[in-house]
Specification:
The structure holds two protein chains of two kinds.
Chain A lengths: L2 H14 L8 H21 L64 H7 L4 H11 L3 H12 L18 H14 L17 H21 L7 H10 L1 H9 L6 H4 L5 H6 L8 H12 L10
Helix pairs in contact in A: 3-5, 4-5, 4-7, 6-7, 7-8, 8-9
Chain B lengths: L1 H21 L4 E4 L3 E6 L3 H4 L5 E3 L8 E4 L3 E5 L4 E2 L2 E5 L5 E5 L3 E3 L9 E7 L4 E6 L1
Antiparallel strand pairs in B: 1-10, 2-5, 2-9, 3-4, 5-7, 6-7, 7-8, 10-11
Chain lengths: 294, 130
């Protein structure tokens, strides 16, 4: 048998001979599967999460399309809290009056991103920090109140933070009394109510007072959710809500408000404090559990 | 072995759910000698007015804090110099101007009741029911 015939014979043998591999077939298959899995996983691990800071990269057309308007995206302000991911988780608003503490820290939040997208967002954040308020708490307030839009409300309520004229005046005066240097930054008089950067000072002052009221009542580190009742329903109701248990109804706790007033504030008949807290948290997002005071 | 794993999982779930349920304080016993009242304010005032609670029955006494909508007051009423003795959520005895109080009756739920109680955290609280 010449070498070529030997080779052909050996190939035929290989084709007919049962496998003599030292590994069982199942083990080999498992090894291949594991290898494939590892390969896939490596691909997944290789994807590094990136945080979007500002608007996504935009297509820059070099030929104008007739009839299509020019769209300009306001990049807003760069989020100064990127990389600090406050998840907002916490135990706030358990209504136990034992000094709940926010699990999150003064940090980034989806509400803060919304505020930063406004032209006046950076000024509002600076005001919050100057007054000792977590910027995310201020951001959550304008998100819930107006979507951070400078709009009119009912009666004397107006602005991005939807404060009544009386509350705005009282709070801006208190803030200026505490820190006269703010006077150079504000729009004076009631016109400041419709200047979001100025109104943010009054709103931050109101949040501060709400947090301090709850601290006096025994909640050591009031969260954004804790103070939300104070901002929405006033001092007495805010404290009552802050101390209430989830299974109690809003009607029982906010005993001084009529059904019509509750309805005007989005409270449905029989709604529990827990349900109200859940709906507010859904609007506020991950800022809900963050502390108000920094 | 599988049975042991199932048992461990069940116990873990039970412990975790127990903790979750136990997170919120709950009333453990009534608070004798106290009764619920509420602030005597209009709806508009509830939205803006702060009613101070003081350490002594004097207008010049230091403010301990601000009253919530519903207040646990000493009963029978203990009134000194037009101030009514009450209990703050921290457990401190405080005094509120008597004319700032009225009996508890929810405007939107007249059948609701309010009862002062000692909560599981040892602090005074209010229990609402029907």
């Amino acid at each position: 048998m010449n070498p070529r015939e030997q080779d052909r014979a050996s190939r035929k043998d290989l084709g007919q001979r049962p496998s003599r591999s030292p590994w069982p077939a199942g083990l080999a298959a498992a090894t291949i599967a594991a290898g494939l899995a590892l390969g896939c996983c490596r691909g997944a691990f290789a994807q590094i999460p990136a945080t979007l800071n500002g608007p996504p990269v935009q297509v820059q057309p070099y030929v104008a399309e007739p009839g299509v308007p020019l769209i300009t995206i306001n990049p807003g302000t760069v989020n100064p809290f990127t990389g600090v991911d406050g998840d907002g988780s916490g135990t706030g608003s358990s209504g136990d009056g034992t000094g709940d503490s926010g699990g999150g820290t003064a940090a980034s939040s989806t509400a803060l991103d919304t505020l930063l997208a406004q032209s006046w967002g950076a000024a509002a954040i600076a005001n919050a920090e100057q007054l000792g308020i977590n910027p995310s708490a201020l951001a959550a307030t304008c998100v819930v109140e107006s979507g951070c839009q400078n709009v009119a409300g009912s009666g004397t309520i107006a602005g991005a933070f939807q404060m009544s004229a009386a509350t705005y005046t009282a709070m801006i005066n208190q803030a200026l009394a505490n820190d006269p240097s703010l006077a150079s930054e504000i729009t004076p008089g009631l016109a400041g109510q419709m200047d979001p950067a100025t109104e943010s000072i009054a709103a931050a002052e109101y949040l501060m007072q709400g947090a301090e009221a709850l601290q006096n009542a025994g909640i050591a580190s009031p969260t954004v959710l804790d103070v939300r009742g104070y901002y929405n329903f006033g001092p007495a109701n805010g404290e009552a809500l802050g101390m209430a248990n989830n299974n109690e109804t809003m009607s029982q706790v906010l005993s001084g408000l009529s059904a019509q007033t509750l309805a005007a504030n989005g409270i449905t008949p029989g709604e529990t404090v827990g349900q109200w807290r859940a709906s507010v948290s859904a609007k506020i997002g991950n800022a809900a559990g963050q502390p108000v005071l920094t | 072995m599988k049975g042991l794993a199932v048992a461990v999982a069940v116990v873990a779930c039970a412990v975790l759910s127990g903790r979750a349920l136990g997170d919120e304080v709950h009333p453990v016993r009534p608070l004798p000698g106290y009764r619920c009242m509420m602030l005597n304010l209009t709806q508009e005032q509830f939205m803006s007015v702060r009613v101070p609670v003081r350490a002594q029955p004097l207008a010049s006494a230091p403010e301990v804090g601000w009253a919530g909508t519903n207040v646990a007051v000493r009963y029978p009423l203990h009134i000194v110099s037009s101030f009514t003795e009450a209990l703050f959520p921290t457990g401190a005895t405080v005094w509120i101007e008597s004319n700032k109080l009225r009996p508890y009756r929810s405007l939107s739920d007249p059948a609701a009741t309010c009862t002062p109680a000692i909560m599981s955290n040892g602090k005074p609280g209010l229990v609402f029911a029907h």
